[in-house]
UniProtKB/TrEMBL annotation:
Record protein name field: Acidic leucine-rich nuclear phosphoprotein 32 family member
Domain of life of the source: Eukaryota
Annotated Basic and acidic residues bias: 147-156
Organism, scientific name: Megalops atlanticus (Tarpon)
Cellular-component GO terms for this entry: nucleus
Length: 249
């Protein structure tokens, strides 16, 4: 998938000015250039273009609010001076796995006065003698180089990752609200509710059974009375016949 199409999909019916974070990792850049990004992404704070085949950042638009730029695993070998013009407020820059060989290549980054963290891991420049000492000398504003400060103390996770604070706050609140709603829906009935319903059902079924028995007994009683009257009638008839025979004799 090329970069333009990926950007279109990432927008998800939003306008560029609504986007604060844009991840374009592993898509394809034509001729090693950034495509599809415009000045309209004026609120963008985090941009990731890992492993997209970039050879230059010359086509990067003006992104005044960009704080973190991920450019790792590309083929960039120079042209970093453009970053101070296009992204003047960068605090975190990841160039690991690129074709950077000389200290002079990173020297223009000194114009990024707010740059706090720089990553050049897996670049040839890291093999130079006194590499770390020289980079910190060239870029005095740096706090962390390749995840460690001047005293070789590891950066906290927040600085190592470099994500702008607050980017996901709104999403987190929405997720919490959804979780709370799901919890309310999943709550089981309070203890005793099922028992009360069961008792009511038992009472109802018991009443129905009693009514059925009474009806059945009533029907049986009616049948017994009819049989009894019929027997009395037959007996009376026999008595009358016997009386008639006696009179004839």
């Amino acid at each position: 998938m090329d970069m333009k199409k990926r950007i279109h999909l990432e927008l998800r019916n939003r306008t560029p000015s609504d986007v604060k974070e844009l991840v374009l990792d592993n898509c394809r850049s034509n001729e090693g250039k950034i495509e599809g990004l415009t000045d309209e992404f004026e609120e963008l704070e985090f941009l990731s273009t890992i492993n997209v085949g970039l050879t230059t950042v010359a086509d990067l638009p003006k992104l005044n609010k960009l704080k973190k730029l991920e450019l790792s695993d590309n083929r960039i070998s120079g042209g970093l001076e453009i970053l101070s013009e296009k992204c003047p407020n960068l605090t975190h820059l990841n160039l690991s796995g690129n074709k950077i060989k000389d200290l002079s290549t990173v020297e223009p980054l000194k114009k990024l006065e707010g740059l706090k963290s720089l990553d050049l891991f897996n670049c040839e420049v890291t093999n130079l003698n006194d590499y770390r000492e020289n980079v910190f000398k060239q870029l005095p504003q740096l706090t962390y180089l390749d995840g460690y400060d001047k005293e070789d103390k590891e950066a906290p996770d927040s600085d190592a990752e470099g994500y702008a604070e607050g980017l996901d706050d709104d999403d987190g609140e929405d997720e919490e609200e959804l979780d709370e709603e799901e919890e309310d829906d999943d709550e089981e009935p309070a203890p005793g509710d099922d028992d009360e319903e069961g008792e009511e059902e038992e009472d109802l079924s018991g009443e129905e059974e009693e009514e059925e028995e009474e009806d059945f007994n009533d029907e049986e009683g009616d049948d017994d009375e009819e049989d009894y009257e019929e027997e009395r009638g037959q007996k009376r008839k026999r008595d009358l016949e016997e009386d008639g025979e006696d009179e004839e004799d």
